[in-house]
Amino acid sequence: MSGISDVAKLAGVGKATASRALTGRGYVSEPTKVRVEEAARTLGYVPSTSAVSLATGRTQNIGVLMPYVTRWFFAEVLEGIQAALIERGLDLTLYDANPTSAGRRQIFEHYLARKRFDGLIAVGLEPELEELPLLMAIGKPVVGVVGEGSETSVIEIDDHNAARRATDHLITLGHRRIAFVGGGAEDFWAHVDRRRLEGYRQAMATAGLAHEAAHTPSRISLPGGYAAAVDLLGTSEGRPTAVVAVCDEVAVGAIIAARRLGISVPADLSVVGIDDHEYAETFALTTLEQKPRQQGVKAVELLMSEIADPSRPPVHITLQPRLIVRASTAPPRGMGSVIRTDSTFDA
Amino acid sequence: MSGISDVAKLAGVGKATASRALTGRGYVSEPTKVRVEEAARTLGYVPSTSAVSLATGRTQNIGVLMPYVTRWFFAEVLEGIQAALIERGLDLTLYDANPTSAGRRQIFEHYLARKRFDGLIAVGLEPELEELPLLMAIGKPVVGVVGEGSETSVIEIDDHNAARRATDHLITLGHRRIAFVGGGAEDFWAHVDRRRLEGYRQAMATAGLAHEAAHTPSRISLPGGYAAAVDLLGTSEGRPTAVVAVCDEVAVGAIIAARRLGISVPADLSVVGIDDHEYAETFALTTLEQKPRQQGVKAVELLMSEIADPSRPPVHITLQPRLIVRASTAPPRGMGSVIRTDSTFDA
DNA sequence: CTCGGTTCAGGAACCGATTCCAGATCAATG
DNA sequence: CATTGATCTGGAATCGGTTCCTGAACCGAG
């Protein structure tokens, strides 16, 4: 209710001085500064954000664009971003735009054009969509979390290597028939999905193994993993002894499906995931840990430095997930004596 | 880049006329209106939100306060809110403040005081926290989704009745030893948790059954449900024949735990949840469906009408969840002939 | 004592819209 | 034909801050 003029009046100074005292910019003598602060406090003065934005051109607000918030990864990233922004006193405007929804086009055309933010974090942008140029066109710093884009900074994990190491872990244990569960993602994971599949294939090829009827199409979720695993493990002949899942939720779905089918994990089937999801520990899931929350925090840091210095060239940060070995992986039956060389060491 | 003055100049009119033409308020002749719109289009004019806010006092922005974003319920509500806001051309500023985090106090003191929004949706506010008065103090319309507060509008499901009906469903099937899994929530679900527990107790009492060693403390999540069920079902003597779970994730955790213990669902143990979570179908879970996404949409509708008419008295909307019977519930062993009277009818 | 540089203060312009108000035009009415 | 009321327009004030710029006071150095 009370504006800076009221504060100035109460403190017995001019508007300009009051502003300087409160923002800390420019010369103000210590005693007057104290008087102004005192006045502001007694009046409960809170600067109007719109007035500040209008005058300074800074909104003190960061936009976050993501296709879902209901998926583990995205929600975790979002929480990381939020936490990092709060520390810095910045607001967060969410643009949750499912790619298939009609609202998405609107978001790009109307919302983002409003530039209600000093910078944007785009999570999970798929490259084939011609949306990146639109993002660049708004003329504000953009940082991506997962997703293509050489013109913007991007932070992501090394999907290829993650899947490769997951597969290598199984190969080292002695497995030969290893399937990949995932793939065929029709949704926003398509890109990540493909890279992980490729990592799996390469590991298999390097070991001279056939990446047999590897991947089973499925929704990237626990039910999807369940359904895919039921298909994959249904017939007992030629059944794989191990499975690389595209992510932990799918892996857990696969474990549950296996148990339902009477297949014991890890005795009859080893399962490895990627994520280190909240569920991983309960299911004793061996996995490659990515920390989405920290990716969110890191994205904010990147964005901050780009806002501070817009000429800064974009950087591409690739994180290496850490292998966490739990009890969902073991040597295949009859190979109990294989020496586990990889153990929990971080490669 | 180009402001309304440029548009006005190009169209050959005054700023005032240009503004009227574009906002549609006040008198403007059709031809000039067309000229202004044309000019705006060729210049790619987008009004500055801060200037508009400053002049009108409206931010075109809605704040959403929630304790987590990583929980199913909250994420779903959030998506519902977002979808409803996009339709209306409004932005969404997220205040994701974990109650235990240090940032939460800051949110209340700094962020909300900034009033960067025309209205606020608070999801899952617990009553014992003395935060409601703070929310009311900001002087903007507030709508709650779940949570106490007679001074603000609230939309929520009838937790008591939901748990009651879940329990009745089991009683009707012939179960006598029914346990409640959940309770003891140390986190933000405490309130909901308590009401559901109470509903369960009342149903048991009404049927003349003892609400025996009913609830097991657990985190409100799948791993929590798993752990609680392992405790509960560990000993075979006096084991319940049915379980009411505080929510679907816990229910699924319980199902998985039961199977691991060699307890067949529903033959040896019936399980009913509350939510109709994404996982419910995969686990054939009988549950009471609440639609968080629609609650979010509804909250936006409520908020809109309160913004339009601030004198509107707060309303309290209580939704009745629908019973969805799947295969996780059945008569207890030896009572296969019990007539299932409740079936899928909506009570 | 004067000069130059630093510190301090406030008036005024500005950010980019909306809106009040006064004046002009125009059609309809008595 | 004069009057009224509705329609149309643009100049100016306003929203609530920040910042430029000018002027005064103060300081130590020459």
UniProtKB/TrEMBL annotation, chains A, B:
Residues 2-56 form the HTH lacI-type domain. One of its GO terms (molecular function) is DNA-binding transcription factor activity. Pfam families: LacI, Peripla_BP_3. Keywords: DNA-binding, Transcription, Transcription regulation. This is LacI family transcriptional regulator. It comes from Orlajensenia flava.
